[in-house]
Amino acid sequence: MRNCIGIDVGGTTIKFGLFREDGHLLEKWEIPTKTEGRKEKLYGDIAASVRQTLVGKGISRVNLAGIGVGIPGPVLPDGKISALVNLGLCDLNLNTELPEYLDGVKVRAVNDANAAALGELWQGGGKDYDSLVLLTLGTGLGCGIVENGRLVAGSFGMGGELGHIIMNPDEPEACNCGGHGCLEQYASATGIARMGRRYLESCDTASVMRGIGELTAKDVLDAAKAGDPLAMEAVESSMRYLGWAMAHVSHMTDPQCFVIGGGVSRAGRYLLDVICRHYESFIHIQKPQAKVCLATLGNDAGIYGAARLILSD
Amino acid sequence: MRNCIGIDVGGTTIKFGLFREDGHLLEKWEIPTKTEGRKEKLYGDIAASVRQTLVGKGISRVNLAGIGVGIPGPVLPDGKISALVNLGLCDLNLNTELPEYLDGVKVRAVNDANAAALGELWQGGGKDYDSLVLLTLGTGLGCGIVENGRLVAGSFGMGGELGHIIMNPDEPEACNCGGHGCLEQYASATGIARMGRRYLESCDTASVMRGIGELTAKDVLDAAKAGDPLAMEAVESSMRYLGWAMAHVSHMTDPQCFVIGGGVSRAGRYLLDVICRHYESFIHIQKPQAKVCLATLGNDAGIYGAARLILSD
């Protein structure tokens, strides 16, 4: 059985996973991200680390199916990446440039949120499905769409950018992207905390959230679970936007399953129930049938998905 | 070169197209739809008409790649069709049942709106693209999504059901589906006429629309083109919902192109300009890049797409 490598390039670390073709993770490791503003430095560091592991494991070049690389930015269908803002790099094409550092091994770059979706489909919460949508509720709102086993990466690198669909054009505050009322402004961890603060400021109702200094999504969710009425309202209004957006997705790519990941998903069953209720309320042409479940791979979803990509491409 | 047949089953007629594999339409014809509530009657009529044409053209069974059939209802991935309400039929599977009437020829059923999208991609307004979304603005709002040359038909037959995404939950009137504020309630021909009436009723402003008895979408669009302020407001508010929904699509499947068809699309360039302006106003994470163009196959899109399906499947 051959091997493949999945890499997840983040702003502070580069994670690596060495896999068997059947999805078994043989080894994972990481190195610090140090680009010094030069893509050659990034390529060199990745290549040295891959080579070291292959030698250490006695894996020959011919037994390596390829390397998938998840990166924090949009990837065009031809592999071009115009900018990786977090890494201070621009004008990359890992598919054509990275192989030069690794004896011509096959390389495929993929957006990191999309990679995570493919990972959850391969070995995670969506293992029983062919079509799923991963929603990663963290600082931002990441999303990846897999349809019939294939990533919907999009023509202009905007596939699965659900975090920035505008749900409420009347929102006074601006999103990081410049839009007003993006889904990310409500349903990410940042968004849930923001909604908690907004409810606190809107009234004088007693709430356990009032005693907390820097209110986090976890604070809001814990208070809501404990029955705090104001926190419950905040969670309801955040998750109503998420459920509504999921209904939009069901009317477009119609997945078998939504997988909820990211820090917010630690709220578990309580959160899933709220999401499901709102999701179902926005579907009328037929009974809602997509399952809603939790992600299981955590921060490893990206390396799994990047590795899976190289096997299917 | 082999041949293929595309069929579009409607409530009153069944349209047929005999194609060469390269997309050239050799002959088209139609017969009345007479199911008498029995699927066997439908299959028998289709088979007799196909056989007659093949014999007349001297085309042997071995030269027929297959038959694609567009039907007015959801088709599940395994070909099952639970109901065709307009035809009074239920529990069909054309993929497995129709071949019995035609010496085992390959048959693939497809939702008619999805078939039309594939048709426009093959030989119509989207001929230069791999990924497009067709929006058919007629009595209802039909939609089909093609991504990377492949139909996004969905897991539960809901792929491309954009007409029923809820854009405005505060809408007092109900949609046919039971929802409130579906896109179809604003951006279909019916929806545009409804918005025209709503604007007339909301004020006393002079408008050429006031003299018209049964106001149609064409009346509203013609008045708007002629500069009637109330009609222009009605068209703006209808097309704002359409542009907003198209922006949702761009953040999910990210097509190269939107193709606008159906009777409403006869309003041409004026309409496209209004749609584009609203579409672009809802995209902030990058410059909007999808083209917006007109459908070119009219009512033949369905037979083209059904025929194309059989070649790709």
Write up this protein.
The structure is a homodimer of 313-residue chains. Chain A is built from nine helices and twelve strands. With 313 residues, chain A is of the alpha/beta class. A five-stranded mixed sheet of chain A has the order 3-2-1-4-7. In chain A, strands 10-9-8-11-12 form a five-stranded mixed sheet, with helices on both faces. Chain A has a two-stranded antiparallel ribbon with strand order 5-6. In chain A, β5 and β6 form a beta hairpin. Chain A is globular and about 65 Å long. The mean pLDDT of chain A is 96. At the A-B interface, α7 of A face α7 of B.
Shape of chain A: globular
Question: What is the overall pLDDT average of chain A?
Answer: 96
User: Which ranges of chain A are low-confidence, i.e. pLDDT below 50, for 5 or more consecutive residues?
Assistant: none
Succession of helices and strands of chain A? EEEHEEEHEHEEEHHHHEHEH
As an assembly, this protein is homodimer
| Total count of helical runs of at least 4 residues of chain A | 9
